[in-house]
Every structure is written in structure tokens, then in C-alpha cells.
Amino acid sequence: MDAALLKDIKFNCDVSDAQYWGFYSVCGLLMRYRDLYRSEIGLKPWSDIQRDDILAWINAKESKWPELEQEPFRHLTVNGYTYNPFDVASINKVLTKERLVYGAGYGMYLKPTFFLAELQSVREISGLIVYTSGLELVRDLFTTPGMLQERTIFLRLEPLMALLLYKHAELNTRHVSALDDAFTLYGLPHRQIIDSTFERRIAEMAERYAEILLAHEIAEATEEVPDWKNMLSLVAGDRQAEHFLRAIKDLVADTSLQGPYKKIIEKRDRGALGLTIALTEGYRKVLYPEIKEAYTSLSQSGNWLSVEHARNAGYARFRSLRDDIVGKYRLGVGKAELLGMIKEQLQHTDRKQ
Predict the structure, then answer these.
(1) Do 227 and 140 share a structural domain?
(2) What is the DSSP string of 334-345?
């Protein structure tokens, strides 16, 4: 492993974090700190963290931010050639030969994001290059288990395992939920001992569920509307508006013929359905209550038609809403008008709750 390359990617991660840490809530930032600390120190996602150790680590990291937030991103040198840090395709042509994968792009709040990880597999599906990664060697505060950047999809198993562990900790024996059903069906019911068997099963669960995330990313690429990125840039800084737009885009992908719900229905995979519903949060959850109702109906009757009806109805509704917003944007509305349209939709959504 090239130490200089690792150092430069780490520098870019730190610059991005220094510039964007304030976009996260206090709770969200602390959770991201914990995950990043485990990654940097080399701890497993379920390892305990000593309070004094992580506080010292946070203080050391934050003390560097004032000098880093004005720094430009460094170009990356790989095997003697220099690349723009966002030239993922060129960099990975070299790194994949070393069983490594490099990812870069823009996440929530258009935060630049970077990572380097051990490569598990690379494949081509529907004209998209799909990289699946394991152990992460360096990364920034932002992580997502699945990420589409241009014509490249990254499936990151380490962040997915961490997410599954957080969800496993939420299991409650007092009532049965979609989350309880999901973990039981995946062989990880409540109060499992953290041992080698648990580690193997959570890794297997992550690998299986990564294929559901892949369906979402492929559907996003299929349903891509060029103007959507321009709209996200236009509303940048308004968290509520960005979350709403991203939720609509995600729900169109989720419910499309190429998306995860269709894949789950075809496979009759109740575990994946329960987990998908349990992982759905924010506006994606608020805007699509009928999928949970369909899951309840499935649990009672065993009939998957209710889920397919909910998928069909959801797709028609979310695509219509997306097209309406895009249509008005194409008419040339400015930022204030676009935000006004979104706020009106948000108010309508709030009244329905």
C-alpha cells in the first residue's frame, strides 16, 4: 500500500470534514465520530470505545479544522501518474490490480466524500461498474452503504455492517416489528452473543442485503433525470428541501420495476422487505406509509399482492410528483420559487401525518 497515496486521501477526507461538519446535528455528528474512530483505529464495528480515548481523538481532529477548511483538495499520485481526486475511473484502473478500490463523489449536503478500501469484487451490470468493498483503509465522516456516482456504483460492506449493528441494538422483545422479523429471518434474533457465529452471520447478512441496495442504485441510474442534480445544487443550504428532493428521488427508484421492492417481491424475501422498511427513515418513511401497511397485510395473510399494489401505486405517485417539480423547474423558476414549491409540498405532507 502506497503510504503517500493513503496520506493524500486522508488529507482530502479531513478537508471535507473540516468544511462540512457543521451540517450534521449534534447526535448525528457524534454517531459519525464513533464510526470513523473505529475505522481509523482499526476496531470492529461492535467493539467498545473508551470515552477518554475518543474524546482525545475528537479534540485532536477538531483542532486541525480551522487550518484545513480553506485548503484545496490534493491531486492523487498513483504509480507515478497524477489524477484529479474525483477521477475515480482512471484511479481504479490502477488500484483494482492491487485489490483496492477508491471512491469519490458528493454525498448529503453535496459534501465531497472519499474512501479507500479493500476490493471484494468488481462487475459490470447494465452498463454500470459495480465495486463491492470490504475493510476500509481511509474514509471521511460521511458514509453510505450504497452510492451511485455517474456510471459507477459502490457497495460498501463495512458501513453496511455498522448500520445493521445499530439496528440490531434497537430490537425489542416487547413487540414484534418489521425489524424484529428481518433479523429473525436472517438468523440474528434479539440478544445474540457477540461471538464468531454472530460475526459470520452479520457479515453474511450484509452481503445478502447489499444486493438489495444494488437494485436501488441501478434503479436510480435508470430513473436519472439530469435536471435533478441542478435542483439539488440550487437548494443547497436548505436541509429540509434537500432531504425532501432526495427522498422523492429515492422513492422513485425504490418502487420502480428495476428497484429493490420489485426484486424483493419476485424473490418473496420477507427478511429483506422487513429490513428495507425498518431502514427507511425521514421523508422516505413519511411519504410512503402504505408500504408498512402492505407489510402488515402480508404478515397476516401471506399474500404478496398487497406489497405489489403498494409498489405500483407508490411508483405512479412519486414519479408524478418528481415530474411535476422538474417540469416547473424547467420553466425557469428561481431558487426562491423552487423552495416555495417544495415548502408547499412539505406542508401538505405534514398535514397528512
Answers:
(1) no
(2) -HHHHHHHHHHH
